[in-house]
Structure formats: C-alpha cells, structure tokens
Amino acid sequence: MKKLLKSILVMSALTLVLAACSSKEGSKEEKEPEAELIVSTWGFSEDFFRENVYAPFEKEHNVKIVLDTGNNADRLNKVRQGNSDVDVIFLSDYYAQQGVAEDLFEKIDSSKISNLDKIYDVAKAPLGEGFGPAYTIAQFGIAYNADEVKQPITTWKDLWNKDLANKITIPSITSTTGPMFLDAASKISGSKEFNEDQAFAEMKKIMPNVVKEYGQTSEFVNMFSQGEIVAGPIMGMYFASLQEAVPNAKFVTPAEGGYAVMNTVNVVKGSDQKELAQSFINFMLSTEVQEKSAKAKIDSPVNTEVVLTEEEATNMTYGEELVNSLITLDMKFVNEKSKTWIDRWNRELVQ
Amino acid sequence: MSKKYIYLLLLPGVLFLTIFMLVPIFMTMGTTFFREDGFTVEGYLQFFKDPYFMGILFTTLRVSVITTIISIFLGFPVAYFVSKMGPRKKAFLLLLTIFPLLTSPVVRSFSWMIIIGKNGVLNNILTGIGLIEEPLSILYTPTAIIIGLVHLFLPLIIITLVGVMENIEPDLLTAAESLGASKLGVFAKVVVPLCVPGLVIGSILVFVGSFTAYTTPALLGGKQRVISTFLYQNAITLNDWQVASIVAVIMIVVTVLVISLMNVLAKKLNPRG
Q1: Other CB atoms within 10 A of residue B198 CB
Q2: What predicted TM-score, i.e. pTM, was given to this entire model?
Q3: GO terms for molecular function, please (chain A) (predicted)?
C-alpha cells in the first residue's frame, strides 16, 4: 500500500514538472497574448463578430477575447451573483437599466471613448450619464405574412382583429420588448399617458389571438416559418431571417409608432481590464465596425458617419429621422414597475 | 480486506451525495422558512392560498398523471411481447427501445413540432385525405406536452417491466392454465399482479420525470405554464430565489408524497410483492 502511494506521488510530481516545462516551451515558440478580455454577449452572428470585430481588436491590442454567450437575463444574473469575471457586457436597455440600478457597472470615462461624438444623441447615454452607450438601435414593429392575412397590417390595433384568432404571438413580459407591447396596448385603449389598468384590459382582449408568447426571437422565427403564426410584433433586425423562410413577409412601422430597442455595452464593476474594455466600446462605435455590421444587415448603425444606399438601408433602422420618430420607454419607470407587471401578466393573462 | 472495512467502500459515494445533494437540499429548504423576523411558514401559506399557483400545480399534476397512465397502457403490451422473445431478439428490441433515450429532448421536441404543427406532417395527411378541413391545433397545448412526455419516458417503463416479466416463472403460467384458467385469466390474475413491483417503479420514474420535465413543456407547451417553467422564470428571469426555493421544496414534497402513495397502492394490489 505504501509503495503504491509513493509511486503515485512520484508520478504526479513528474507530471507537474513535465507540464511546467512544456508550457514554458510553448510561450517561447508563439507569443501568447498577455491579457484576456471577457465579453458577455448574445452569440448571434458570431462568425461576423469574430471576423470583423474581435479579431482586429485582438490584433491591435494584443489581447485575447473570450466570449460568454446567453440571453439577457441569464447573463445579467451571472454578473449579479458576483462570481463571473466578465469585463464587457452587451445588454438590451431593459436589462442594462437593471444592472445600473443594482450598481453592477463601472462609470465610463467618456473622454476615452472618442467615437461618442460621432453617434446619435439618443444613443450616447441611454442609461444615464456615465453609463454605456447604445451601439445599435433596433425598431420594434410588426411582421406579418402577406399571403395569410386578409388585409395588410398597418397599426398595432390591427393585431387585435378577430380574423387573427389563434394566429399571432406576442413577446413575453419578461423579454425586452414585452413592456413595449404593453405600452402599445395602453395606447390602443385611447389613453395618452401610460395607463396600467387599461393596458391590461386590452391585453386580455388580445389573448384569444395569441398562440404562445415568445421569450426569444428565434421562437418567433420558428413559429412564423412553420406557419403556426401569421403575424406578431418583432424587432426589425431579425426580419431578414423571417423573409428567408416566408418570401412574402412584410415588416411595418405601426401607425401609432414603432419602439426603439437600444442595445448597450457596459463595463462590469470590478473588471481588471477597464481601459481595454473602454477601447473595445470605442471600437464598437467606430465608423469602420458600424459600417460593416450595417452592410451585413446585422446591426443598424448609430454612427452618423455611416452612409448606406437605399438597398443597404432596407430593414435597417437607418437615418436620423426614423431614429428620432421611434418611441422610447423610460426604462427606469419600466424597471420600477416590472415586478408588478410580470405578476399581473401571469395572473390575469396566462391561463 | 476484512468484513469490517467493507463499508469503507461506500464512503466515496455517501460523501459525494452528502456534499452535493443532501447539504444543498437542506440549505434550500432552510432558506424558505427563515426571513428577517425569524421562523415562518408564511411563504408556503401564500402559495397554497394563491389560485394562480395552485392552477399551475394542478395542470402539472394532471399532465404527469395522464402521461403515466398512457405510458403504462402503451408500455405493458410491448414489454410483455419483448419478454417473450428469445435472448437475441430481446437484446435487439431492448436496444431499439433505449435508442430514443440517446437523442436530446430538444431534438425530440423539435421533431414533434414538425409532426403536429399546423403545417405539420399529421395535419397535411389528415387534410390531404379529407378527414378534416381545418388543421388541428395540437402544438402549444397540454396535449402536445403529453405526447412529448410519453415519447420521452416510455422506454423507462418498458425496460423496468421487461426486467420484472423475465423473472416470472413460465411454470406458474402453465400451472394456472392446467388448473383451468383461460389465457386472459392467466394474464389478468397471474401476470399482472406479479408485474406490480415493476409497474410501481416504472410509474414513479415516468411520473417524477414528467413532473419535473422542463424542456418538453417549454418547447411544446403554449400559454399555460407548468411548475418547472414557473420555477425557471422565478429563478433565472426574476432572480427571486426565495420563491424559486419554495417551489422547489413543494416539488420535492409532492414527489415524495406520490411515491409513498404508489407504494401503499402496490402493497394493496400485491401484498406479497
């Protein structure tokens, strides 16, 4: 028994020494980047970002970018629980505002982010002074299948039409666009200011039309391409994948107004790469990156130097006029109310 | 090694379960009883008074019970058939039974979406041969959840039943027949009672599996929630671990209750089992 133990000890000591040697050798042969920047993001269009954003940034700053992917809620919760080492986090404004309220982000030194001067004013600090900018603005509007509806859909109110019984989906209240749809419901009730009770009364009326709520846009795309739904509210940036499946799909800005969904970038509190994280944000806002992602139809640009042809701008939230016409919700108000809304939504609408 | 030390073999397993299962479970339970002002069962009372939560609990129980019953009725004849086969065929058939277990529930749920969707295979066939005019709405209803769960858990009950049926002495059946029992009588009065232990274990596996399943209800279910999706919403989306823990404890208690109930039932059906 003792012999066995001894030999195991010797063996493991040997392996350790060997391992130490080999890693030294490795570092001599190829220059390993010294630093790591951990970026928490959704993970869609990863190929595009890897090639056009991460790789050039890695090269310029001699850093390795490590991704942590998942939906807004999951990733924010990881940061909340304090045992993650994320440096930069991409979040929609709804979730980012929760992070701000809970003091999870570092203040940003705007003098270090020179490209801030080039972007729309609304995108500069949507979460409050000193917090991360929006690098893209998406439009929350309506998509529908023109082959399957009797009349073209032009307003939010059209979704309440009885012809659409069991034929639409709506965003779940816990997703970024959920509160926006609730706001639209309040508008339909005829109230100028947001009226919670009237909004929920309207929501109750639309439920017979709803097949299922969607929590992730991929669910919408699936239901739409499988013919389970013929219409529903969705962010414009995903419209291209709908059109691939249903050629006669249409995206409209409802007459009552589309909503602005701002995707923001923030530096996580306690990050040991604060400088680098800010350079990364600056790079995201650069004309170069903004133009590439706009032309690839991945993210609508916020950088005003980006110029798109009409064809390139199709389905994108492009141009100051459109951006300024979008409705923005007061995310602070939304976050204060969200717990009540989620509870009411669960109790009153979901059976 | 003397007999005294043989219990040491259990140590790694017991230690693992204690640290990674028992301690977390008791910690979870503990947090649900204590608030700033000391010991309280208020959290639980609120839940049981809440018609919304009770609705979710009953939907989940109903779905799980129906899934279990359907699985028994589908699984029993199959298991009986398989257990009568020769060793080679039996091994092959069992392999086929286990095969679906090797695919992820996500993939299986998606394949059901393609089958039972509005433009799915099933509806296309039914409308094609003129049996129905409007496509059936099965997807995103509790029925879809039940279909998915039966598909998911049927292998478990078949495997446990085959194990029990193999051990039934063929002589017993011959004896019963020679004493004048009909084929059906032998099946109902000899085979079925002897299978009760397998039925109980199989049903428990199916029931607990359906009760706690997350992926299948999340993908195939519609507007109505089941308890696991409710738990997920509270823990992950709302970050409300207090409520999530209470739901988790309620799930554990319900599971234990159902298991004990089934054991009592089994004793009644087969006192010698």
Answers
A1: 23
A2: 0.81
A3: thiamine binding; thiamine pyrophosphate binding
